[in-house]
Specification:
Helix content: 40-55%
Number of domains: 1
Strand order of the largest sheet: 1-2
Order of helices and strands: HHHEEHHH
Structural class: mainly alpha
Oligomer: single chain
Strand content: 5-15%
Number of helices: 6
Shape: globular
Largest sheet: 2 strands, antiparallel
Radius of gyration: 15 Å
Number of strands: 2
């Protein structure tokens, strides 16, 4: 799958978030996970992380953007999301500076699918724009692993919500 489709998926999400949240459409989460895996920012395919404990991830791969609070809990149960919300810097100098916010799709004690859909939309939009304007190595060297994991966790949570 071509990386150029990252922006296309983000654009599609922007147009279909309401329909997905109203269960009128289904999000192809496998496509999103594949696109994220193809970036090769994480060491393993995203689906390998769902049953990994927070402690294992923290010790082996985290760049410490995520708030991990229960070291024995599996990552699939993590509520914190790192939202990619902005990027600046210089393409010519290979200096990209991403900024992040924290989002919690469970903030009201109930899962809010729209929160995760927005996390996906914003993150994919920014990643897609950067990917279209620089070499993949610059993206790999500057994008937070925790942000990519968060996008995967958001897609996984949406997938679980769609099944129920």
């Amino acid at each position: 799958m071509q990386l150029a489709t990252i922006s296309q998926v983000a654009d599609w999400l922007e147009e279909h978030t309401t329909a997905i949240s109203q269960r009128q459409e289904v999000l192809d989460t496998a496509k999103i996970l594949q696109l994220l895996d193809e970036l090769q920012i994480l060491r393993q395919p995203l689906s390998n992380y769902w049953q990994m404990t927070e402690e294992e991830y923290y010790q082996n791969e985290s760049d410490h953007q995520l708030t991990l609070q229960n070291e024995q809990q599996v990552l699939a149960q993590l509520h914190d999301r790192v939202l990619v919300n902005h990027v600046d810097g210089s393409f010519s100098k290979n200096e990209l500076h991403f900024t992040y916010n924290h989002e919690d799709p469970y903030a009201n004690q109930k899962y809010d699918v729209v929160s995760d859909l927005h996390t996906l939309e914003y993150g994919l939009e920014i990643i897609g724009a950067i990917q279209a304007n620089t070499i993949l190595a610059d993206l790999r060297n500057n994008l937070s692993q925790d942000a990519v994991l968060s996008l995967g966790l958001a897609a996984h949570a949406v997938e679980q919500w769609q099944k129920n």
